[in-house]
Amino acid sequence: MSALSSLRSGGKDGGGTNKAKQDFSGGSGPYKAQYWPGSAGSLPEHTIYAPKTPPAGGKMPLLVWANGACGSNGAGFSNFLTEIASWGVLVVANGNPKGAWGATTPNYAGSLMGGTEGDKTRASLLTEALDWAEKGAAGGKFGTIDMARVGAAGQSCGGVEAYSASVFEKRVKVIGIYNTGVIDPGRRHYLKEIKQPIGYFYGGEKDFSAKYIMQDFKDIPATLPAIMSSLQVGHMGTYFEPHGGKFGVISVAFWKWQLQGDQASKALFFNKSSTLYKDGWSIDMSHWRE
């Protein structure tokens, strides 16, 4: 099977771009969400995902996100990121959206990573999103952010950006690494500098990032809390299915646990009879340290 065919078809548990379908339902959580161009909130190089009506009487956690291929389309992972936002998380993605919320994108599967050739994002955009949030997030226009509950994450090349932006960044409390690892041998020593808990998620043996993630899992400090989860869906995961598919389900559980302290979500990872395992996820909790 060619690399392109693998990206399209995924693996035995589905995934790939063949199942891509734009979803404007607002997510399955209790707070229907959508995205806005960052320019609506004084953040011109980003896309903001937030509940249409923010949770009353409290602050939301923040997740800053870097796209696969370091792509500059902040709406490229909209199904997946809207799903996370619908559970009361404010998400800021690198890059402007290449289409308005609710507008159908022609050849959606072919434009998932977004941006034009050479139009790539950079890790510093994640730091800019943190600065924006710390300075008041446009006066709370999209809800109030709790800077004590901040995550940084990204897929493929975007995961490398998340690593880079987080390794010496005290404001990031949790890291999410999706379908990637530290590929450059000259940068692997930075793994020993990471202080935050990490969630690793990848697409099983057909995901070309598998060997890097597994090596990272071994090379991070022995005392660092980390989990590693795989589903046989290939490198493109299920991000582009409605609600982000099974990657959406496990990611909601992870971020609810890590950023909202939800104990029922935590239990899903430790109970091998939970819905996550029934979905086909293989979850290695051996590196988790309380």
UniProtKB/TrEMBL annotation:
Record region (Disordered): 1-28
Gene3D superfamilies listed in its UniProt record: alpha/beta hydrolase
Descriptive protein name: Alpha/beta-hydrolase
